[in-house]
Amino acid sequence: MSYVFPPQEVAAVPITGSDLKYPARRVYCVGRNYEEHAKEMGFTGREPPFFFLKPADSLVVVKAGEMGSLPYPSLTQNFHHEVELVVAIGKGGKNIQANDAHSHIYGYAIGLDMTRRDLQGEMKKQGRPWCIGKGFDHSAPIGPITPAAQLGGIEKANIELSVDGVVRQTSTIDKLIWNIGEVIEHLSAAWELQPGDLIYTGTPEGVGAVVSGNVMVAKVTGLPDLTIKVS
Ligand code: MN
């Protein structure tokens, strides 16, 4: 039996310091996981973590040292950047406990949870799903994955995003409301995680709009920079 057309290849994310590639399966995202970002979006306090997904083929893989290209999407006048630490799952599981979560992590990458903020806002107001604001084509740029074993810990790393050389977002990973282990505990209670699952862990304050021609540079201490131009 053959397919009626060739199946689409999975997104392959390069591994730092290796010729191997990481085959992506799902893209999970955590909402409002930094207090100052929750406040800028009009919320306060610690709420249980909540999740949404992006299609795996919305990943835009950018190699280290290269400038990626991000098409300005349709239907929006308010295209926002959200710089995030991405956790790459290497070993699946369900009901994973926070204190065991790190044994399920393959590595870390920098990601951008690009957002059509005007469409997301309209959907929120109407109580409808966020898909059109969050899960559109090319909405998930990602840099190379660095194996956790090569990092001296990521918990206190700095995270930063600049646009055309001006810093817009800056924070540290230890300001996450729900830390990486707790995110995996909550997520794996709702879905069985599998190798290839990526988790965008949430953005710090300072989100804002980009337009065609802008160059975004995202940095997390210890990981290769992610550079991408809006086309
Ligand atoms: Mn986000």
CATH architecture: Alpha-Beta Complex
What is the name of the CATH topology?
Answer: Fumarylacetoacetate hydrolase, domain 2
Total helical segments: 4
Q: What count of domains describes the coordinates? A: 1
Which structural class fits the helix and strand makeup? Answer: alpha+beta
Instruction: Output the CATH homologous superfamily.
Output: Fumarylacetoacetase-like, C-terminal domain
Beta-strand content bin: 25-35%
SSE string, helices as H and strands as E: EEEHEEEEEEEHHEEEEHEEEE
By CATH reckoning, the class would read Alpha Beta
Order of strands across the widest beta sheet? 4-3-15-8-9-12
- Overall geometric form: globular
Largest sheet: 6 strands, mixed
Rg computed from alpha carbons, rounded to a whole number of angstroms: 17 Å
Low-pLDDT residue intervals, each spanning 5 or more residues: none
Helical content stands at 10-25%
| Average pLDDT for all residues | 96
Bound ligands, named by name, code or SMILES: manganese (II) ion
Distance between the termini: 41 Å
The total of beta strands comes to 18
